[in-house]
Structure formats: structure tokens, C-alpha cells
Amino acid sequence: MRYLGNKESITDEIKQLLLDKKLLNKGYVFFDAFCGTGSVSNALVDCFKVKTNDLLSWCSIYSKGRLVGRNCTFELLGFDPVDFFNSNDNKIEGFFYKNYAPTFSERMYFTADNAARIDYFRWQIETWKEDSLLTEYEYVYLLACLLETVSAVSNTAGVYGAFLKHWDPRAKKQVVFTRLAFSDSPNNFIEAHNSKIEDIVSNVECDLIYLDPPYTQNQYGTQYHLLETLILNDEPTISKITGSRSTTPMRSDWSKDLKAHILFDKIIAQTKAKYILFSYNNDGFMTKSFIEASLKRYGKPETYVCKKIEYKKYRNFKTKCQKEHFEYLFFIEKKMQTEVVYESPLNYIGSKAKIINDIKENLPQSFDLFIDAFGGGFNVGINIDGNVIYNDYNRFVAELVKSFKTEDTYQYLMYIRKMTKKFQLQKADAESYNKARFFYNSLPVLKRDPKLLYTIILYGFQQQIRFNSSHEFNNPVGMRWFNDKVLEKFISFSRKIKESHVSFFSTSYAELKQEISEKSFVYLDPPYSLTTGAYNDGKRGFNGWDKLLERGLFEYLDFLNQNDVRFMLSYVIEHKGITNEELLNWVKTHHYKVIKLGDILGISGSKRKEVLIVNYEK
User: Fold this and answer.
1) How far apart are CA 231 and CA 150, in angstroms?
2) Domains of the chain as residue ranges with CATH
């Protein structure tokens, strides 16, 4: 069977990798999520219990037929159907004869005789099934044989998006019903799905998932419409030129740039598999760096493998100077879901991304509401399960974080791409950057789109968020851009925040009292009085942070403590040889607990000695 992207040539590489990882013959369930013609499933069925899936019905049938052929005895039928077909010359002038041969149309997919034979084969198989003369496996196997048969005499270049305008010699041969080769291995087949993988992945129990999605804009439904019609046997309305059925139900978002990235993140996050195997082509939408970043977010970095497999691709004088072509074969073992850490796509000063695990390890066992009182880039709250309140006094930041939840991720990315192109943004280009920044600042505050702000931030100095006293964004141009690692953070964060129960506020932390009960937990990450940043120097049109405000924070925490509300304060006791004695005295006076985290490296490269201060025993 000729098939785009067939992985027959790398099955040995796949098997060797899994052998190296000691995963063969352990009774594990292997889920071939984009099975195509089943080359990988068929190669591994002797080592795994196998489940398959493909969006195209004919692929689901064909791959299943290869796996179940050994179970077909045709006892109910009473004879060998392959021999039967090849011993007669029966024909039916049916759908294929009328539409895919130059009879009632000018289409030259098959000769008239072969098309009539194909119609007969399809009718006879369906009749046997309706007469209960075939088991389920026998029915599927014969349909798979028919697909192989059709492929051998089709007048195409290998796919069915179009037919040849002249007769290929093999298309003129008399069709012979082909006995499809099948595996002699023990019956390890479990089930076949026929769905979009993103719709079913979270429900499929498996130990190892293999992903081999489309990697270009080529839509497989368009290229193989005829085989889909053959299997569905539904005589659909077809197009006038190519004779294609409607391909809308077969269209895959994996064949769209950026949507493929979004789906990849979703699949990796939601699969129940412990091990992930992924093959992708270097010509694809997703880059190696994006794939690696995504796999390492959800997987154990020490188990990560990337093999580069070169392959020959037809080249002519126009393409001989183009880049080399090869497959990437990725492998990783997944983390436990509770071990996955999400990172904000905002490069926020004072980010707690590096101490999320420390924070989570020191949380109380249960609470009904988590309040992220100084939310910032939302690195902490995004990693908390359950009901969460996000709050930040800076309304621009609050609206920006909220936009990741409310805006469709794909449309958001397309907007970024559109604005980047409009202003011709690129790293270290001050002229284009200043034009975009000026346009943003020229808009009335209430009409400033957070998506535009985020786009500008991406090309600013260290991608920081900085405003002047007139609430104008004034970060200078930087050396950064919307690279693959930022893209991965954006996509994973956006998916997670959309799936989370988050309420958004933009007010002073002290105004959140009415949201708090004894079952709430309050996390506070205020500016540090020992350090100064763009968010606490008091020059940005928002309140700064000083000793007076720090004392107000201490009083607020004492209020929480008196009302049996548990809290955690992220703070710095010592910085550059200076100790916050007032903080130490406050902690000692109220018998709060200090959890030292050691030196934490900030985004500017400086180190700070962070602590967590809590009013409870875990």
C-alpha cells in the first residue's frame, strides 16, 4: 500500500529504541494514535498489546485488517473468499464504475472493467456480512484486502487527489483480488478507534503512545478521499473535477501551523501513557526545540531521547540544493501529573517559577480556595489545583494574564503573528519596536488590547513589563523575540489556565478580605523592601513599596492569623549583606515559621536569599 509518510522504513529504529529502553515483551499496551496503514503497529504486535486509531476510516480498517488476519478462518462462509473472487469475472456497474472510470464521467482513476470489478468486490463483501457469513475480523480483513487490491491498479501517482491523464501500465492490468499479508504473531490486538486523537486521548488506557501526525499542510482526507468512499460505501455527493467526497469531516488541524503546536501540547499533557514515542520530520511545522521543550515539561528530562534518522528523498535540479531531509524520533517517560510545572509566558521580575516545587511541598494538605494576592505573571497560582483567585494591582498585568484564559489560543497566536508582520518586529530593531510601542501608547487606556501589549513585550528588553508615571509602556527594545521556548510556555500556560477555575481581580491585596474564609489559603509574593524593580520603585503610575507599606502587610498577615486563615509569604530576609531586621523581629514575635530556600537566581542573573514564611504546621 502506497501511503504518504509511511514509517515502514524506520520500524527497525523504533523497535531498537524500545529495546534499549527495556520496554519490549512486558505485556504493555501500545497505542498507535495516528496508525495510517499500520506499519508500526504491525511491526510491534509481537511485543505489545496493540490499540490503533486514525481519523480516516479506511486507515482504521486497513491497519486493523493487518493485525487480525491470522484470526480469519472463514468457516461460516465455507470457502476461501480470495480464491472465489479470482475464480470469477463478475462485475457491477456501480458507484465506482460510474464515477471513477471514463464511463459516465471523464475521470481516469480506473479502467472501466477494473472499476466494475471493484464495485462487485465491495458489494459481495457487504452482502456476506449482511447474511452473517463473516465474523467482524473477517469483514475487516476482506475490506483491507480490497484496499490493497485497489491500490495496485489505481491510475494515480500514489494518492487520489488527482488521476493521471494517461494510462499507467499497471492501471491497465486486470485487477486481481489481493490477499493482504498479516502478522503471524499471537493475537495482541485490542481495539481500533476512528477519531480525532485530541477527542479521545484522555480516555485511552495505554502504557506507550506513539504519535506520527501529519507535519505539513497536506490534508490526508483530500489525498485519499476515494479509499474513504470505498470503505464507507455510502455513495456520497462528489465534486465535479476530482470526484472527491466532502473532506470536511476528514480535515485535521495537525496540518495547520500553530494548531499543530497547540494539539501537541494537549496530547502530551492528557495521554494516560507512561511513555511517549514521537516521530516527526524536519520539514514539519514544529521545530525540534519546541518539541523538546514540550516533552521535557511533561516528561522526565533524564529520559529524553532524540534520534536523527536520515532518509533519501527524490530531488531534481530545482531541489538538489535544498536542506537535508530526515526524521526525528523522540522518546520520553512522563512525569506524574502532580510533578508538572507550568511557567508563565511573561518574563516577570521576581518570578517564582524556580521554587514552585518548594511552595507546593509546603502547602497545607487541603483548602477550598487559593488566593494569589500578588499574582504577577501567575507562576504560582497556575500550578495549584482547585479554585484560585488571581489578583494584581497593576491592571495592565491583570488584563494580560486574564487574556490567556479568555482569548482563543490559536487566534491569539495569529494576532501576534499579524502584529509582528504589520510592524515588522524583530529582535534589536528599535525603529520597528518604537513604532509598535508608540501605537499602543497612543490608544486610550480602556481600548488598549492586551494581545498587542504582549506582542510588544516579546521584543522588549528582557521581555519585561514597565510603564511610566503616565501609564505608557516604556520598556526599551531588546535582543529577544517570540522564540520556540516562549511559544511552548505560551501554549502550555494558555491551555492550563483555560482548564483551571480562576477568578480575576485587580485591586489591593487588602481589599480581598471579603473573598477569604477560614478554609481559604492566602499566598503573598509582594515586592521586597531590600530590592528595587520596575514594579516597586513608585515611578510607574502605581504604588511603590517601602517600609510603611511593608508594615501594613505585616498587620494584614496578623489579621489573617487571628482569624485562623493560613498564609504563606514569599520574601527576602537578606540581600547584598543587608538583613531585614524588622521582618525577623515580626516573625519572632508572632512565632511564624521560616522555611529557607537558599540562593535563587533572578532573571537579571542576581541572587537573592528567599524564604517562605507560614503560620501553620503542614
Assistant:
1) 11
2) 8-333 (3.40.50.150), 353-614 (3.40.50.150)
